[in-house]
Write a structure and sequence with these properties.
This protein has 416 residues and is of the alpha/beta class. It is 51% helix and 14% strand. The chain has 2 domains: 192 residues, D-Maltodextrin-Binding Protein, domain 2, CATH 3.40.190; 204 residues, D-Maltodextrin-Binding Protein, domain 2, CATH 3.40.190. Strands 1, 2, 3, 6, 11 and 12 form a 6-stranded mixed beta sheet that branches. Strands 8-9-7-10 form a 4-stranded mixed beta sheet. The chain has a two-stranded antiparallel ribbon with strand order 4-5. The structure holds beta-D-glucopyranose (BGC).
């Protein structure tokens, strides 16, 4: 009898301890991204939440957002999803997102998150997502081993980049690793807008309401800079994904790469180490500035009652332990300003310290939904893709196209 009671108790405890499963839709499918997700899975598992993966491949999340839209329309939303920036604001206006004010209060988010992060997750006075990490887009990576062989210094100016490119070509190394996916071109281009335009103009461009700002001659200069950069490699077409271009940097087939610092996570996943195998530095003329994209998990309102678990998930992913583990793998930096920066690698430390300094210009990424909505950022990326692919399109014509796009988007969208 005592034996029976014991097994009954054990069975009940096992049921009681059974993890609650939450569906999570995202696009983190590369090696580094997967490692980062695994960190969250482990942290959540310890708190009784099982992560059921609904990953949709495709860098930048274009495919994932399409699948997410159709699941929401079919009234089958996942319990949580990577919904960021402008999309997050739009979705919370539609009542699709669970407010997280209580979790935020209980866990004193307002005292531990960077003010920028707090702003990004707040919409109409409510907390609408759990922040995961801050990516820095204006990052120039270079292969440290190749740099040592060729005795080059870290490329700080466009002049340094030009000299390095010449040395690399002489050594039979492609100066830059490129991916021609439209979102990749847009990612590089916005760093050039910041470089050529400075933070004040970039801020106006990103607001996307004052379309006249896009007529500024510095926008044409950024387009010229993009063409110049591309020509450093010669005229080869590069149809490959971002992971393949990061790989070229890793192997030393290419010397430099301009990319959001998720590439840092990728290089680490392949066994590389910042400072030993690769270096990173802000894109020329953007030192001290942070062109950011903040990853956030929104808890979606569905037919299944899951609020307690969704709130627990939010609490866990923002906790100091999850923040460090996840961001060290992802290449981004913790959303909290109370962590120990010596735990971050060289690239991440500079990013985190730039966020921490009170006077750093912090600029929202247009290519990654922080500033423009999904349709506008896609239209911009397509126009830039056409510019890059067709040498007959002059910078002046490409600029006209960008102005026209922003002008009609500004008419269609009321100010946020
Ligand atoms: C996301 C990152 C992701 C990157 C590449 C960005 O839009 O914010 O989390 O790693 O796309 O897929």
């Amino acid at each position: 009898m005592r034996g029976f009671a014991l097994s009954l108790w054990l069975a009940c405890t096992a049921i009681g301890a059974q993890a609650q499963t939450l569906d999570v839709l995202h696009w983190w499918t590369s090696a580094g991204e997967r490692r980062a997700v695994d960190q969250l899975v482990q942290q959540l598992d310890r708190r009784g939440i099982a992560w059921r993966d609904a990953a949709i491949p495709g860098g930048g999340g274009g495919g994932a957002m399409k699948v997410l839209n159709s699941r929401v329309l079919a009234r089958d939303p996942p319990d949580a999803a990577q919904v960021i920036g402008r999309t997050l604001a739009d979705w919370s206006d539609l009542g699709l997102v669970l407010p997280l004010d209580e979790v935020a209060q209980r866990n004193r988010w307002s005292q531990s998150l960077f003010p920028l992060v707090q702003r990004v997750i707040t919409h109409r006075g409510r907390i609408v997502a759990a922040p995961l990490g801050v990516h820095r887009i204006n990052t120039l990576f270079f292969n440290q081993r190749v740099w040592a062989q060729l005795k080059l210094g870290a490329p700080k100016t466009w002049g340094d980049v030009e000299q390095a490119a010449a040395a690399l070509r002489r050594a039979g190394v492609a100066p830059f690793a490129w991916s021609d996916e439209p979102w990749q071109i847009a990612t590089v281009f916005e760093t050039l807008l910041l470089s050529e335009g400075g933070p004040a103009l970039y801020g106006e461009l990103a607001a996307t309401q004052r379309w006249q700002a896009w007529q500024d001659p510095r926008v044409a200069k950024a387009l010229e800079r993009l063409r110049w950069l591309r020509r450093l490699n010669g005229e080869t077409a590069i149809e490959q994904r971002w992971t393949a271009s990061a790989r070229q940097l890793f192997t030393g087939d290419a010397g430099m790469l301009i990319m959001g610092d998720w590439a840092d996570g990728e290089l680490v996943a392949w066994g590389a180490q910042a400072g030993r195998d690769y270096g990173c530095t802000p894109v020329p003329d953007t030192a001290g500035m942070h062109l950011y994209s903040i990853d956030t998990l929104a808890m979606l309102v569905g037919t299944r009652k899951r609020e307690a678990e969704q709130e627990r998930m939010a609490e866990v992913v923002v906790s100091p332990a999850a923040q460090l583990a996840y961001n060290q793998a992802k290449g981004s930096v913790p959303v909290r300003d109370d962590i120990d920066p010596t735990q971050l690698d060289d690239c991440a430390r500079d990013s985190w310290q730039t966020l921490k300094r009170a006077d750093s210009p912090l600029l929202p990424s247009i290519a990654h939904r922080m500033a423009a909505d999904e349709a506008t950022k896609d239209a911009l990326a397509d126009a830039l893709h056409r510019f890059v692919k067709d040498p007959a399109v002059t910078p002046a014509r490409a600029q006209e196209r960008l102005v026209a796009l922003i002008r009609s988007a500004a008419r269609a969208t009321p100010p946020p």
